[in-house]
Write a structure and sequence with these properties.
Layout (H helix, E strand, L loop, with lengths): L2 H6 L4 H11 L4 H8 L3 H9 L6 H10 L4 H10 L17 H12 L7 E3 L5 E4 L1 H9 L27 H6 L4 H4 L5 H7 L2 H4 L18 H6 L2 H13 L2
Antiparallel strand pairs: 1-2
Helix pairs in contact: 2-4, 7-14
């Protein structure tokens, strides 16, 4: 259950509904028009004078664009069964999706590629990117345990390293992208991910950049990474 839902569970159903409405910066009248109900009935629901049905709960949270996980949690809090199933990534039905994800990430070598979840946690990474993440591993802090090492093309176990923390933390990527720290990051990458006799701009490559299959693949890095992250969005 997310922290947002934990905070809202301290109030009744109407209080949680009002909090989501304020998060979306909507008035009671605006939400009532969006949901197709009367503002009087919505006011009764928020104040607890009226108990909504299951269909009404789905209608209101659909109008508020509440994320699917929070919809399930809040339905349970309102006394109703969840409507959507959540399958763990390591479950047997997800093997096909994970195989496709590994293929997408592996095709980016020698360039880095990473798959993230909705919290910007690293779920899976290519060999090159896993080496960089492990080299820039953040130290354990108060209330935050040491992140798990990333295995190339393997499902990262919790607690997973967070991309945003790695980017912004002084001991993360910032420590390695300075002129003095760049050689350390280069040495951290496996030679197999950096050197390929068929790839530009490695000096051993005699092909022109426009003919190198990996150089061409570089142009599709952004779209393919977005596809990899989208595959995890519904999980």
């Amino acid at each position: 259950m997310s922290e947002t839902v934990r905070e809202m569970l301290t109030d009744g159903f109407g209080g949680r509904l009002a909090q989501w409405r304020r998060r979306r910066r909507m008035s009671q009248l605006g939400l009532a028009l969006e949901a197709g109900i009367s503002s009087r009935h919505l006011s009764f629901v928020e104040t607890g004078r009226s108990r909504p049905s299951r269909e009404m709960v789905l209608l209101l949270y659909g109008a508020l664009d509440v994320p699917l996980r929070e919809q399930n949690d809040l339905l349970l809090a309102a006394g109703f069964a969840p409507v959507r199933r959540e399958t763990p990534l390591d479950a047997a039905p997800m093997e096909g999706m994970l195989a496709a994800l590994r293929l997408i990430l592996a095709r980016h070598d020698p360039f880095g590629a990473v798959a993230l979840d909705r919290n910007w946690d690293i779920v899976m990474a290519s060999a090159a990117y896993a080496a960089v993440v492990n080299e820039c591993r953040l130290p354990a802090e108060s209330g935050r345990p040491l992140a798990t090492l990333v295995t190339p093309l393997g499902l990262t176990a919790p607690p997973r390293p967070n991309m945003l923390r790695l980017l912004c933390h002084p001991a993360g990527y910032r420590r390695r992208v300075s002129p003095a720290g760049a050689p350390a990051t280069t040495r951290a990458m496996p030679r197999a991910a950096l050197c390929c006799t068929r790839c530009w701009p490695i000096p051993t490559c005699q092909r022109r950049p426009t003919r190198c299959r990996v150089a061409i693949r570089r142009s599709s890095f952004r779209s393919s990474s977005a596809t990899a992250m989208a595959a995890l969005g519904a999980s």
